[in-house]
Structure formats: C-alpha cells, structure tokens
Amino acid sequence: MARAVKDIEREIRELSAEEKVELMRSLIAELDAPADANVERAWLETSQRRYRELVEGKVKGVPGPLVFDRLRKRLGG
User: Fold this and answer.
1) What is the full per-residue pLDDT of the chain (77 aa) written as tens digits?
2) Cβ neighbours of residue 74 closer than 8 Å, sequence gap 6 or more
3) CA 66, CA 72: separation in Å to the nearest integer?
4) What's the half-sphere exposure (Cβ side, CA atoms, 13 Å) at 43?
5) Maximum Cα–Cα distance for the chain, whole Å?
6) Would you say the pTM of this structure is higher than 0.70?
C-alpha cells in the first residue's frame, strides 16, 4: 500500500535545497511529458510542414518584434 502523502511530504521537507530542486525538476518534466507517444511525431510533422511552406513562399513569416507588439496590445500591456 502506498505511503501517506503526509509522510512523503515530511521526508521531502527534510531534503536539502539542492535535492528539492532536483526532485521538482524531475516531477515537472514528468508532468510536461507528452501523454501520447504520437504527440512528438505529430509536432515534428507539423513543424516540418510549416517550415516547407515558409521556404516555398506559400506563407509569409511575421517578425518576432511585431508578434510581441501585437501580443502586448491584445493583452493590454
């Protein structure tokens, strides 16, 4: 049977700051991992397609500063 969360929390609080950082990074990386193995492949295919469209002139890129300016205006900043 799994240990109680309170027990685990108590043990974590006893770790050094460096150990806590390492643990947090590991847990966050696990949570950020794709839920489906096909997600990575889908993102790769999409990015490759978009790159080809840009190189072939099918789409026009937007300069980064303009993108951020538009975002700031949309977000009221």
Assistant:
1) 477 999 999 999 999 999 999 999 999 988 887 677 788 889 999 999 999 999 999 999 999 999 999 999 999 97
2) none
3) 10
4) 6
5) 59
6) no
Distance CA 37, CA 30 (A): 14
- Helix, strand, or coil (residue 3): coil
For residues 27 and 45, what is the distance between their CA atoms, to the nearest angstrom? 28
Cβ neighbours around 50 below 10 Å, total: 13
> DSSP assignment of 5-65, as one string?
HHHHHHHHHTS-HHHHHHHHHHHHHHHHS-SSHHHHHHHHHHHHHHHHHHHTTSS----HH
